[in-house]
Amino acid sequence: MKTENADLSKLSISREKRDEPPAPSRFKGVGVTIIILAALAIAGYLGAGWLKSFLTKPVKVEFATVSLRSPSEEISILTASGYVVAQRKAAVASKATGMLVALNVKEGDPVKSNQVIAKLEDGDIRAMLAEAEAALALAEADLPEAKRNLERQRKLAAETSMAEVELERAETMLNRVVASIAMAKARVEGAKVALENTVIRAPFDGTVLTKNADVGEMVAPMAAGISARAAVVTIADLGSLEVEVDVSESNIQKIGLGTRAEIRLDAYPTLAYPGSVASVIPTADRGKGTVMVKIAFDEYDSRVLPEMSAKVTFLKEKDQAAARLPAVLTLPESAVAERNGKTIAYRVAGDRAEAIEVQTGARFNGLLEIRNGLREGERVIRSVKDDVEDGVKVEG
């Protein structure tokens, strides 16, 4: 192969400047590094916190509940629960069977004794009354003639002995007419009574509690029909309200007639109503082992309603001023501690202790009044120890 004539100049390297991509910015590289380092730091912190939380053993504690307490419990003999009951109460029904055509009251209406509450359909009864009155008029129409006939026969009997038989017949006829009149009068009275039975009246002064039937429904005594109503309304004398409670046989000797009591309704737990034992029912409930006791209100207002649940605290005879004091929120004294100059209780939120600053008040029976900071029903740590702090994991 010949190479003498080869052009070696083509093998030289070109020195011309070529286009090259710009070098990366120094500051941009620093920014990315900072972001990466910050993300790693945050992830490390959160991971460490999670790991610490996961590995931390929960603090064993006992729980207590913020609850309402009455100051009168300090002077109480015993407590019992029961219901407000009207001592005069009636399910007003009809003596007749028929369709209800008028209902003059509704729930909550006051009624007076003998006031017309409702009326039943009475067309058939009025027809019976008219028929009985017509029969009475017919019987009374025969009475004058029967009397005149008897007088004639008496005169004839005085003149001749042959008229004795006719005289007896005349007397019999008059007696039959008189009896017919009496029977007709009885039928008239019966129809009037039946008509009155279609009118339903209030048996005493009271208030309508419930309406049990509507216009157009059938009403029957003792609900004789399948779809018939027995009581039309239920009324009660709201001036006869008392609380009925069951007291254990083992405690019944602690109370007697006149024993003072404090009544608190579940609906209004902060209100106290004074009362006293009105009666002790002279028999026991064999199944429950209790004796019923009735407590009369000394005074009460319109908020007290029949069938409300109530708590009764029977009081000692001395120092009953506390019976008038309102109920307060309380906690065990051990549930409150001083931390950094603040009065603290630890509310339980999920599985964590949450420090809550509270304002306290009076102490009684190992309890401490809580005036501010907590609400009734909230769960707190019963005994605050050194290992209990805000945010710590707890378990019962």
How would you sum up this structure, described in words?
- The protein is 25% helix and 36% strand.
- The protein starts with 25 loop residues before the first helix and ends with a strand.
- It has four domains: 59-72 and 327-395, Beta Barrel (conserved putative lor/sdh protein from methanococcus maripaludis s2 fold); 74-87 and 237-324, Efflux pump adaptor protein, beta barrel domain (Elongation Factor Tu (Ef-tu), domain 3, Beta Barrel); 89-121 and 198-236, RNA polymerase II/Efflux pump adaptor protein, barrel-sandwich hybrid domain (OB fold (Dihydrolipoamide Acetyltransferase, E2P), Beta Barrel); 122-197, Helix Hairpins.
- It is elongated.
- The strands form seven sheets. The protein has a six-stranded antiparallel β-barrel.
- It has 396 residues and is an alpha+beta fold.
- A hairpin with a 2-residue loop joins strand 22 (359-364) and strand 23 (367-372).
- It has helices spanning 26-55, 123-159, 164-196, and strands spanning 59-60, 63-65, 67-69, 76-86, 89-93, 98-103, 110-111, 116-120, 199-201, 206-211, 218-219, 231-236, 241-248, 260-265, 268-285, 290-297, 309-315, 328-332, 336-339, 342-349, 352-357, 359-364, 367-372, 379-381, 394-395.
- Helix 2 runs antiparallel to helix 3.
From the alpha carbons, calculate the radius of gyration and give it in angstroms: 48 Å
Low-confidence stretches: none
CATH class of the largest domain: Mainly Beta
Terminal residue distance: 101 Å
Q: What portion of the residues fall into strands of 2 or more residues?
A: 35-45%
Number of helices: 3
CATH superfamily of the largest domain: Efflux pump adaptor protein, beta barrel domain
Strands in their spatial order, largest beta sheet:
4-13-16-15-14-17
CATH topology of the largest domain: Elongation Factor Tu (Ef-tu), domain 3
Number of domains: 4
CATH architecture of the largest domain: Beta Barrel
| Strand count | 25
Element-level helix/strand string: HEEEEEEEEHHEEEEEEEEEEEEEEEEE
| Average of per-residue pLDDT values | 81
